[in-house]
Amino acid sequence: MPALAGRLKEVSLAASVAMTQRARALAAEGKKVISLSIGEPDFPTPPHAIEAAHRAALAGDTKYPPQEGTRALKLAVQKKFKRDNNLDYALDEILVANGGKQIIMDALLATCDPGDEVLIPAPFWVSYAEMAKLATGKPTYVNCPQNNGFKLRPEDLDAAITPRTKWLFLNFPNNPTGAACSRAEMKAIAEVMLKHPHVWILTDDMYEHLVYDGFEFCTIADVEPRLKDRVLTVNGASKTYAMTGWRIGFCGGPKPLIKAMANMQSQLTAGVSTVGQAAAAAALEGPQELVAERAAIYRQRRDLVVQMLNDAPGIACHKPEGAFYVYPNIAGCIGKTTRGGRRIENDTDFAMALLEEKLVATVQGAAYGMSPYLRVSYATDTESLREACARIQEFCRELA
Q1: Which of 202, 236, 250, 323 has the least C-beta neighbours within 10 A?
Q2: By the 8 A CB rule, do 211 and 217 touch?
Q3: CA distances from 286 to 5, 55, 77, 296 (A)
Q4: Does residue 312 come out as left (phi exceeding 0), alpha (psi in the -120 to 50 range) or beta?
Q5: Residue 346 vs residues 349, 364, 392: alpha-carbon distances, Å
Q6: What is the dihedral of CA 351, 354, 359, 365, to 10 degrees?
Q7: What are the structural domains, with CATH classification, of the chain?
């Protein structure tokens, strides 16, 4: 058989995907698995977005789309950035792609030369590092400790930047911790970045509307306008509007970067589904009350999960400001043995034993760059969350 590409040796399957696949396999055997391993809203796509897609298809809007996105969606994105983020982007400073993941990949392919460093605060979404490697970049990590609320300390950021640093990735509210930065905290990060004009900044704002307890979201290009000409503001329809399967991501950034990214995209996938773009435009321009209503439900779920996990022996769970994840510390469970005879040496052992013995799927913190933790998604119905947390409590009580 002919050889596969050597780059595959550097890229691994996302742990969240692996755990979800294992959970599905157990469910296929007839076992009652509760999956808290995937970051996907359990709510339906807004009806008016579905109706817009249907109308577009019936109207014959099924031909090749513009590479950079339809005018209708780019206008909706332009309004969204102004409405929600106080950012003004011209239409040729906006790009639409097949989800936020392709936006990020387009950016890396358009800018990274072999060995360029991509600075990633840890814990981090697992795909950041793998995408950097695929683009011949070098992922470099900056620790965001729990005693700082899993947030990026300016002094740590400053110390991590080198002449080879090409990108800083920011993701607040964060996957996997749910941590979010206040305006003052983001301003401190911006002050550091003003000292390093050779570094691009990518801000992944997918969870911007999922913030709780009066917390106010901010994005760095708004907080510090002097950085705007090297910031790529990334967002999409997946989390805010429960449109993960529609695959619509978008971004705003400086025209030369957007042009280069569009060039990359034209060779990789060309344009994005026309009916999907029609649905996303309707979601962005339609009623927005649903966003706050769903965020309120997520907040209730967060409070439930944090309380129940903190009642589990050996677990300490930080209450985050946003997203739909918690990142509990399981240090108190390490070194113990499960009722089924498995010894817990690390968070990977914990996650796998929990799945096999109690049929609850989570993801080990090692996958996100910080142990011993678990990522628990609460993007599922409340009763399932309550049952899953009860099983986790039972699992922990049985450790010896």
Answers
A1: 202
A2: yes
A3: 45, 15, 12, 19
A4: beta
A5: 5, 9, 16
A6: -20
A7: 7-38+290-397 (3.90.1150.10), 47-285 (3.40.640.10)
Supply 105's token pair: 């990949």
Treating both helix axes as pointing N-terminal to C-terminal, what angle do 382-397 and 289-310 enclose, rounded to 10 degrees?
20
DSSP helix/strand/coil, 128? helix
User: What is the DSSP track for 144-191?
Assistant: --GGGTT---HHHHHHH--TTEEEEEE-SS-TTT-----HHHHHHHHH
Percent of the chain topping pLDDT 90: 92
Which of 124, 100, 23 is CA-nearest to residue 327? 124
Percent of the chain with pLDDT strictly greater than 70: 99
Q: Please list, in sequence order, all residues whose beta carbon lies within 8 angstroms of the beta carbon of residue 61, skipping any fewer than 6 positions away.
A: 274, 275, 278
Token pair 């090692």: residue:
366
What contacts 283, CB < 8 A, 6 or more positions away?
45, 46, 48, 49, 237, 240, 241, 243
Give the pair of three-digit tokens for residue 220. 């760095």
The predicted-structure confidence for 204-229, as pLDDT tens digits, reads as follows: 999 999 999 999 999 999 999 999 99
Q: Residue 178: which of 210, 201, 154 has the closest Cα?
A: 210
In whole angstroms, how large is the CA radius of gyration of the chain? 21
| 390 vs 392: CA distance, rounded Å | 5
d(CA 300, CA 216): 18
The CA-atom distances, in angstroms, between 155 and each of 159, 192, 382 are: 6, 8, 40
Tens digit of each residue's pLDDT (9 = 90 or more) over 107-156: 999 999 999 999 999 999 999 999 999 999 999 999 999 999 999 999 99
Contacts of 282 (CB under 8 A, 6+ apart): 46, 48, 49, 51, 52, 53
Please give the Cα distance from 228 to 252 (Å, whole number): 10
